[in-house]
Amino acid sequence: MSATAGTITNVENKYYLLPLKEPLGDSMHGIQTHVVLVTTEITVASGEKGLGYTYTGGPGGMAIWQMLESDFKPALLGRDADCIEAIWRDMYIKLHYVGRGGLIAFALACMDVALWDLKCLRAGLPLWKMIGGGSGQTKAYAGGVDLNFTVEHLLKSVQGYLDNGHKAVKIKVGKDNLWEDVERVAAVREYLGPDIVLMADANYKWTTSEAVAASNALAKFNLLWLEEPVDPDNIRGHRVLAEQGSTAIATGENFRNIYEFEHMFTYGHIDFPQPDVSNIGGITPFLKVAAMAAALQLNVSSHGMHELHVSVLSGLPNPAYLEIHSYPLDQYTTRPMVVTNGIAIPPDATGTGVVFRPELIDPHRVK
To answer: Does 166 qualify as catalytic in the annotation?
Structure first.
């Protein structure tokens, strides 16, 4: 292939507002009715196109799209798409002054996923093999956004997860009174029995002392982990919880760069790191977090974006669990998720394996 075949010749950014089937709620973000999807399609001189995307639960999507249009698009034109690390670093430095994370991380993710898609397409490999091969599969769990559900509705939702082949389930906690959380977790554990893996997610609702109380109160239900028990910036709180609580800690979905993970690994505590390609700036930094975790003999889980993360985790040597999120983006793709007996299988198609169906998403395009 000629040296100019990988030159970026066009960048197209799109913005969609995808409706959820039913309103979903957690302890900190209120009720959500839509998912914002932002996509970036990068074309190179050879004519090949790579698709990247990011998502939010609502706010900020238009700002991400505008940043991609105003700052990323002109900077990407003429670059060599094969030089993913160099492009990522240059864009990070270019925008460092206005943010080392936040909206910039989401925009970086859009770009980075598109570049990885191109890299895989041009190599003729699926993403999970391009990353390293791993075991070619990963354990998965169904993660509900269900704090607004009644217990009856919650158990019905859980049964749906089991019907879909799941052997692990996560529910939301973070009610105004701890006894309500205890009742909900107790009901789900009784319904599941002892053999189904159960996790709980507080969406950083609690103070450190409240999290310690919750960790100890919920320990009798044999939770695999308590997710985001305190604010992600509360490094000391994670350490205290590890010392005084009784349940393993999962966190990381709200970390926006690799340094936040490094600080938590060093000064706080994580048992199950949970980077999100969409939130941390793409596949490139996700793999760096996974390498840091491997050095600490920790396995990596994911948050959201399961249609892409299934390939990322399946390519790693240290996957823990893939979250099958309540944001059903895979229902808009050519290849919905495949989960059998709790195991998720990545697509074998070249590229990331995420191809959105225009007839399904185009009616919801805003920009």
So the answer is: no
